[in-house]
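Progress report, Aim 2. The chain analyzed during this reporting quarter is listed below.
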Amino acid sequence: MHADFRLSRASFNALMDAIGREADHGWGPEIACLFFLFWLASGTSYRVVSRAFDMPRTSVHRAIHTTSSKVASLFAQTVHHPSEQELVNMGAGFARLAGSAAFSRVAGSIDGCHVRVKPPARDADCYLNRKLFYSVQLQAVVDHTAKFVDVCVGYTGSVHDSRVLKNSPLYLERKYPPPGYFLIGDGGYPCLYYPITLMTPYRQPLRNQLQAAYNSRLTKARVVVERAFGILKTRWRAIFLKALEVDIRYVPEVILCCTILHNICLSQGDVLDVLDDEDGIAGAAGEEHPEREAAPPGTVSGAQERDRLAGLCCAPQDHDYI
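Predicted C-alpha cells for the chain:
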C-alpha cells in the first residue's frame, strides 16, 4: 500500500479501527478512506482521484472531506501530552539523544515548519514567508521518538516562530511542559523560564567550553523534531513539497490529519527512513531561522537555568551518557 497510499496495511487497519468501519454511504468507509489517502499521497485534484477510482467527482469530493473530518476528530486521542510515566521515559530518551543526564527533564523538542499554499488574492502578503514563498505554519513539539505531542496549525507564513509560540495554546494555557520539565528549541526562540520553560542555544560567539558543550548536546537532542518533519515530508511529499491547491480554510485540517496519521504510523512501526527516501528530500526538513526576537513582556528569562544545565553537561558523572 505504500506506493499509492503511503501507509502500511497495519497502519491502515489501525486507522480504520479508530475512525470506525460502519458504512454511512454506498461504498463503505474503507473505500472513502482510500480516496482520502490517495489524494494526500498524490496531491492531485479531485478530478484525477475520481478518474483513478472511476467514481463521480462529487462523490470523491464528499468522501475526502468526510474522511478528513473523521481523521481530524482523532486529534485528542492521537496527539496529546504524555502521562507522568511517559514523561519519565521521554526524559530518559532525550538524555540518551543528548548524551547527557542534564537533558533528562526534557519534555519535547519544538520547531516550526512552513507548508506551501496557494494564498487568497486579497491577503497574499500575509502568507509570504522570509524565504519568499507562500505558506501556513505548523508549530510542533515532538518526543524523543519523533512522535507529535503538541501541534498548532494555521498562522500565516509571515509570522515569526516566536510569535506563533506566544499566541499558541501551549504558551497561553501554560499546561505544558509541567513544572520541573522544559522544552528545547533552536535559536529562533527566546530562552525562557516563565510562562513556559524553553531552553535554546547560546548565541555566537561562545564565551567558553561550557557553552560549546551545552550547545552541542542540545543540538543532538533537538534535531529529533527535524527528523519528525522529514518523515512527514517524505510520507506526504505531495502535500509538503508543493503548494496545497485547496481552499485556504481547509489547509489546517489537512495538515492536522497528516500529523495524526504520522503518530498512527509510528505506533505501528511504519516509519519511513528519510535518508533512504528515493526522492532525496531529507535536507528539506530543517528550517533556517533569522535572528531571534526579544522575549515577550511579562516573561522570565531562562538564562540562569541554561547556565545551570551547561554546568551539568560537563559534570564528571555525566560522562556515563557519552
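The CA atoms of residues 39 and 49 lie 7 Å apart. DSSP finds 15 helices and seven strands in the chain. These observations will guide the mutagenesis work planned for the next reporting period.
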